[in-house]
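lol forgot to send this yesterday, sorry. struct tokens for the thing we talked abt
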């Protein structure tokens, strides 16, 4: 089994909200999984050694709301290769909120089921630059029966999206949401104003009755809930609260404030909600992390946890946290060249997007210097040399 080591780590961010920063400077990964974390560990047996040069390592970012369809292409913004580009933004896994941008998306039960099953299967076999694409989120339509949810769950579908179906009233979708959940399917619900044609506004009252697992873009996608509505879902429910780059920043800040006040940060998850009308944003997740940390004062390591460990908990993923036995999806970063900050966390606290110098997925180096972030002040060094990775981009 191939062994990868990262040594000389200055700051190691666990991605877990409670744990915060780990007291260690070396990570060993074997067979794509983190095997050891410690200080000054022996790296002589490693096939590949990444020297972090005293910089920061965080878990690979998880975008829990990324509009994939099929292949590395978004019909919404007619962009090829966006997922590969997102890995250069430190995003190593994405969750599909339903393949709703599929041109001519079917509404009949057979078509809806077929699209979800096919999208999931395709992305199991297709990983742009190693990215884990959790796709095949069935779009909940009134044409779906309980038997349909049972059938797709048996075929491996474990994600669903509510908010784009042909329901006259969003309340009418409650039975379908319950059936999906009954068969172990995680339901993300649109929240706030209508987005694309065919969607309807979904209010806090709807969310409280529908009780999805995840309130998608609770800060708006892109139009936010009312102030009272946001407060209700934070205070009176236990649903996951997703805040996104392509939403309302003012509401994101309000939600973080409420979550801190009511000790509900453990339910807040960061996503991009792109590609959408807002654009293709490879830095959508890290930019949101910087905005939240710099504008609310939440510590950078806690804010990173909202985009990593919290997303992993919401979706039971084995990535997202740096701990022994977890998937080795890691990002090496430093303060961007020219920043006043002296390290990546200092940069995040100031609202400066850090410079990424390596992205590792399943224990394999996938990119060195990011082509999308600013240049890091200190660059990770890799042995044996992987110049091809730099040249390839
Ligand atoms: Zn969306």
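and heres what i got for the seq, position by position
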């Amino acid at each position: 089994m191939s062994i990868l080591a990262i040594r000389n780590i200055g700051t190691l961010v666990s991605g877990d909200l409670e744990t915060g920063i780990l007291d260690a400077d070396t990570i060993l990964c074997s067979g794509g999984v983190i095997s050891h974390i410690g200080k000054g560990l022996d790296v002589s047996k490693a096939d590949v050694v990444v020297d972090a040069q005293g910089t920061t390592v965080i878990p690979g970012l998880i975008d829990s709301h990324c509009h994939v369809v099929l292949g590395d292409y978004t019909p919404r913004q007619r962009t090829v290769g966006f997922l590969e580009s997102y890995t250069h933004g430190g995003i190593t896994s994405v969750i599909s909120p339903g393949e709703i941008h599929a041109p001519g998306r079917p509404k009949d039960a057979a078509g809806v089921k077929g699209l979800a099953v096919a999208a999931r299967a395709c992305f199991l076999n297709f990983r742009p630059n190693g990215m884990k694409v959790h796709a095949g989120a069935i779009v909940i339509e009134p044409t779906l029966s309980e038997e349909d949810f049972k059938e797709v769950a048996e075929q491996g579908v474990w994600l669903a999206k509510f908010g784009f179906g042909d329901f006259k009233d969003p309340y009418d979708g409650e039975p379908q949401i319950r059936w999906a959940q009954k068969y172990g399917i995680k339901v993300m619900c649109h929240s706030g104003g209508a987005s694309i044609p065919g969607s309807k506004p979904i209010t806090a009252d709807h969310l409280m009755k529908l009780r999805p697992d995840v309130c998608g873009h609770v800060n708006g996608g892109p139009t936010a809930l009312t102030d009272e509505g946001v407060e209700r879902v934070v205070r009176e429910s236990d649903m996951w609260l997703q805040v996104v780059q392509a939403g309302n920043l003012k509401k994101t800040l309000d939600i973080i404030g409420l979550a801190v006040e009511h000790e509900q940060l453990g339910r807040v998850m960061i996503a991009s909600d792109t590609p959408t009308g807002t654009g293709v944003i490879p830095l959508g997740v890290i930019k949101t992390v910087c905005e939240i940390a710099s504008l609310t004062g939440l510590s950078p390591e806690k804010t990173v946890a909202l985009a990593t460990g919290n997303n992993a908990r919401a979706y039971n993923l084995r990535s997202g946290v740096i701990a022994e036995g977890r998937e080795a999806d890691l990002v090496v970063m430093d303060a961007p060249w020219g920043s006043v900050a002296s390290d990546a966390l200092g940069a995040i606290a100031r609202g400066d997007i850090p410079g990424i110098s390596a992205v590792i997925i399943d224990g394999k180096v996938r990119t060195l210097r990011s082509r999308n972030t600013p240049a890091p002040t200190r660059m990770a060094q890799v042995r044996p040399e992987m110049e091809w990775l730099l040249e390839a981009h």
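Residues 65, 67, 97, 221, 273, 276 surround zinc ion (CB under 6 Å). anyway ping me if u want another try
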